[in-house]
Amino acid sequence: MTKLLPVLILALAGFAFSQTDERAIPAYSVNDKLIGLSNLYGGLSDCSVRSVSGKVKDVDRAADRAVVTIKIDKKTKAKVIVPLGRVADADRKSLFRHLITKNNRIRLSGYACNAEEPFSAFSVDRVY
């Protein structure tokens, strides 16, 4: 019986680690619109955390990332890099149709290593 306990603990730990997913986590509203996306960035960073909230003014898409221009107020704009490597193919269409579209108000949080350059987002949320 005492030898069964360590085996049971190892088996349960194996099941727990197998449940982790390397995909971004989408959040949908009750009417099936994408309103949030998190876990876009792999792991923690030594860089400082930044967050920006405002209206989407421009979106430049590439294969594995999107560069989003956010208008914070009348005079201030910010560029944010949204990595798309972890976004599932089914969620990419909704991402650009419901969440990152012109004049939508969103909040992007991420890591910034240099204050002058765009920062990489780890979450995107719709702000109402």
Task: Name the descriptors.
alpha+beta; five-stranded mixed beta barrel; OB fold (Dihydrolipoamide Acetyltransferase, E2P); 128 residues; 20% helix
CATH class: Mainly Beta
- CATH homologous superfamily descriptor: Nucleic acid-binding proteins
Q: From N to C, what is the helix and strand string?
A: HEEEEEHEE
Shape: globular
CATH topology: OB fold (Dihydrolipoamide Acetyltransferase, E2P)
Number of separate structural domains: 1
What distance lies between the first and last C-alpha atoms, to the nearest angstrom? 57 Å
CATH architecture term: Beta Barrel
| Helix share, percent | 10-25%
What is the count of helical runs? 2
* Residue-averaged pLDDT: 85
Structural class by secondary-structure content: alpha+beta
* Rg value: 18 Å
Largest sheet: 5 strands, mixed, barrel
Strand order of the largest sheet: 3-4-5-7-6
Determine the strand fraction and express it as a percent band. 35-45%
Q: What's the number of extended β-strand segments?
A: 7
Give unreliable regions as ranges: 15-19
Written overview of the protein:
The chain is α+β, with helices and mostly antiparallel strands. A hairpin with a 5-residue loop joins strand 4 and strand 5. The chain has a single domain, classed as Beta Barrel (OB fold (Dihydrolipoamide Acetyltransferase, E2P)), CATH 2.40.50.140. The longest helix is centred in the N-terminal third of the chain and has 15 residues. About 4% of the residues have low confidence.
